[in-house]
Amino acid sequence: MSQYLVAIHHPDDYDPFAEEDPAMERDIDILNEEMVAAGIRIFVGGLQPVSRARSLRTQPDGTVLVAEGPFLPTRDHVGGFWVLEVASLDEALAWGRKAAIACRAPVEVRPFY
Hints:
- 32% of the residues lie in helices and 37% in strands.
- It has 3 helices and 6 strands.
- It has helices spanning 16-19, 22-38, 89-103, and strands spanning 2-11, 41-46, 54-58, 64-68, 76-86, 107-111.
- A hairpin with a 5-residue loop joins strand 3 and strand 4 (64-68).
- Helix 2 runs antiparallel to helix 3 (89-103).
- This is YCII-related domain-containing protein.
- Residues 9-100 form the YCII-related domain.
- Pfam families: YCII.
- InterPro entries: Dimeric_a/b-barrel, YCII.
């Protein structure tokens, strides 16, 4: 069995209180229940808005600079994720498809080493 990250991507201005209606919340709950029942969900977590992120960068003198905001200035960011333990990439992609449908958002599936 291998572990995979299934990450949901949201635009920077994503507001879950405005965008996530009861039907979407229900679909995500059902997906989580399916993952638990299948015994493949290791961890799940939603992230606060990218405006709450802090980036840390090592400076030439060895100090670490902490800055407000995301590490990369992009239009999209990871809004939440699952860590799944499944038999194959194909199985991880099948769960990723379900996540994209339930979350109504782009999904990235990536294996761990």
